Amino acid sequence: MSEAYITRIAKFLPNEPVPNEEMEAYLGYINGKPSKSKSIVLRNNGIKRRYYALKKDGTATHTNAEMAALAVANLFKNNASEIKDVELLSCATSSPDQLMPSHGSMVHGYLKETGPIEVVSPSGVCCAGMHAFKYAYMSVKLGEKEKAVSCASERLSPVLRASQFEDELQQLLKLERNPYLAFEKDFLRWMLSDGAGAFLVESKPNQEGISLKIDWVEGCSYANEQEACMYMGADKLEDGTLKSYKDYTNEDIQEYSVFSIKQDVKLLGEKIVKLGFAKLKDILVKKGISMEEVTYFLPHLSSYFFENKIEDFCNENGMPISKEKWYTNLVTKGNVGSASIYMMLEEVFHSGVLKKGEKILLAVPESSRFSYMFCLLTVC
Q: Are residues 197 and 323 in the same domain?
């Protein structure tokens, strides 16, 4: 088999960063009043700035596919004609602009300079970006492709705007009698950000500068034993199953906020760290790798609330990760879902501090139904 390397990383962030105090100027006020949960969520998640692909009046500035295409184009900003050599485009998102055509096809539609190439569109939530990357990695590793691009992008700001909640206003007011349920509905409005990232994966490392050799990519899902924790386009029934938007009337879709993003925060807190990092321990044992060999640890965090929980779990289970190895950009970029891991690695890759032989461990948990992806890279 060939080896596979990440040789370039790029990102695209729409517009100017939005600080905490301006969030509701973009997302709006439900019932004309400031959110009761905003300060609680922001205090716990630690985010200070994020990006929205919209103006304050709600006008879109970019589509999801357009942002992904701009990130891909940035891979080739020093030699734009080189994009014609790309043989595979693997594009992930949890927030496509439409149900059909596929997100990947729409991204390809913006990249006129490419030829008729293979395009795939892994679906999912945070792990989808890693699934797109693994497809590109395996294609190069198998020798089928020499130059592949994976990308991940999110554009969730439009569904976080207050205008999306006005028709269910009375329902939200009722829910104020049960603060837990109200918090569950409002929680993700203060967590999510827009943007895109892209990797160029090749069969040979860069002749000048650094590359990242892909040692392995491993994932797992616990959906066989866990119910949904984060969902959209469905509603959760009392028995824990999801009822699809296809099975609701138009009136019920509004009443039950079926197209709002919802998070079962209690289930999230109970499961997200314990399941995934127990699996990481198994993977490290199988691969014969210890945390002492890892130079940089990049965990995708939805909130800094989970940082200490991950650290405590790893310490208690014999795989301590000293804090100087950790890197995350959540505070400045927000939670960009499937694209977050791309943006973190992009910053580390271009930091100028990486040395050949150093190892980078990526960890991506996904709460939607508890899936996880892990990856080990070696600087070369």
A: no
Dump pLDDT digits (tens) for 103-113: 999 999 999 99
- Domain ranges, residue 102: 5-207
Q: CA gyration radius for the chain?
A: 20
**Closest CA relative to residue 227, chosen from 268, 288, 282, 170:** 268
User: 328 and 182 in one domain?
Assistant: no
**How do residues 55-110 score in pLDDT, each as one tens digit?**
999 999 999 999 999 999 999 999 999 999 999 999 999 999 999 999 999 999 99
Please state, in angstroms and rounded to a whole number, the distance separating the CA atoms of residues 2 and 287.
Answer: 19
**Residues 6+ away with beta carbon under 8 Å from 305:** 44, 45, 46
pTM beyond 0.90, yes or no: yes
Same domain, 290 and 198: no
All residues at 6 or more sequence positions from 138 whose CB lies less than 8 Å from its CB, including other chains: none
Secondary structure (DSSP) of 19-40 = EGGGHHHHH--BTTB--SSHHH
3-class SS at 243? strand
Q: Count the neighbouring beta carbons within 10 Å of the beta carbon of residue 315.
A: 11
CB 362 within 8 A of CB 375: yes
126, two tokens: 């945070």
Length of the chain: 380
CA distance 138 to 369: 25
Tokens of 137: 């990695």
**Is residue 58 left, alpha or beta, with left meaning phi > 0 and alpha meaning psi from -120 to 50?**
left
